[in-house]
Design a protein that fits this description.
single chain; 317 residues; mainly alpha; Tetracycline Repressor, domain 2; 0% strand; globular
């Protein structure tokens, strides 16, 4: 009898956890820490000059903030999802809309608190800015022409969150100008991907796919330019192998799905292209970090394994 009673309870718990994982886009959560790693490596000029516990704490804060954004996104989009994506947690009835709202707000607040506790006041301020971008994207700017820009701002601010962890370190004072352009490039790349995603459910739009392609082109060109600024040459074998290899991977991975979507623009091709571009941000971050520290480039790239692995069971876009 005990076994019979335990089975429904266990099954219900598993379903609840699976629904929450779908709500927060669990594969995507692993794309947030590489943003923070990149920011810290950039400002430090290589090895982050802060305790690993601080870096890990701020990376956790970025995960909480990302989870808040996806949860609030589904809360706001519940009516649209009921029409176009009825399998999602809220329209399917697995998670109530009220519960999603409360969870999203709690995650947003927790992310700011953890960022401030782990990274100090500067990190806390940047986390508030990031939280504001999330609120704008899921609120006032939702469905407006500026919505995709707000999402790009979220990613740029996430890189800045990593920069803020080492804001008080001496090495941060001598960081070259190009370092501070990187969050802007990341923001523009994700803005292009979001623009493409927002047209996923409509009629085929090859123009939107071209915007995504432009974002990839900008990202690749920026990494090459950064390599020139750093002074990478053929004698820097570790840097060339890590940063160069990751950049080729990023371009090939995103290019394959984007070309497929451009040739046949419809939800069935654009959706996977969006998902690939989101996951591939990990590889882009790792390539840039690898220009300054091949070791940290490899660490950042490692996050792609759980992200891609979980994407086979949970949606990314």
């Amino acid at each position: 009898m005990n076994r019979t009673n335990a089975t429904p309870s266990t099954g219900g718990l598993r379903r609840s956890l699976a629904s929450l994982a779908r709500l927060v886009r669990v594969p995507n959560l692993f794309t947030a820490p590489p943003d923070v790693i990149l920011g810290a490596v950039l400002v430090s000029g290589g090895r982050p000059s802060v305790p690993l516990s601080s870096l890990a704490g701020v990376a956790l804060a970025s995960v909480l903030l990302y989870a808040a954004g996806t949860t609030l996104n589904d809360y706001v989009d519940a009516d649209e999802d009921a029409q176009f994506r009825p399998e999602r947690p809220i329209p399917s009835g697995d998670v109530s809309r009220t519960r999603a709202r409360n969870l999203g707000v709690a995650l947003l607040c927790a992310g700011v608190v953890v960022a401030a506790a782990a990274g100090g006041p500067t990190a806390g301020v940047v986390a508030v800015v990031l939280g504001s971008f999330i609120a704008l994207y899921d609120g006032a700017l939702k469905g407006t022409p500026l919505g995709f820009a707000a999402m790009g701002g979220c990613r740029g601010a996430n890189v800045a969150l990593g920069m803020a962890v080492v804001a008080g370190a001496p090495s941060s004072l001598s960081a070259p100008t190009w370092v501070y352009v990187v969050p802007v490039v990341v923001a523009l790349y994700i803005a292009g991907v979001t623009y493409m995603a927002e047209r996923e459910t409509g009629a085929g739009d090859s123009g939107a796919v071209l915007v995504g392609m432009a974002g990839v082109g900008l990202a690749v060109g920026s990494v090459v330019a950064a390599g020139s600024a750093v002074g990478v040459d053929s004698t820097d074998s570790a840097t060339v192998v890590v940063a160069g290899g990751l950049l080729v991977w990023f371009a090939a991975w995103t290019g394959r799905d984007l070309l497929t979507a451009y040739a046949d623009p419809r939800p069935g091709t654009i959706g996977p292209a969006v998902g690939t571009c989101v996951l591939a941000l990990v590889v882009l971050n790792a390539a840039v970090a690898g220009l300054l520290s091949p070791a940290w480039g490899v660490v950042a790239a490692a996050f792609v394994a759980p992200a891609v692995g979980l994407s086979s069971a949970f949606d990314v876009s």
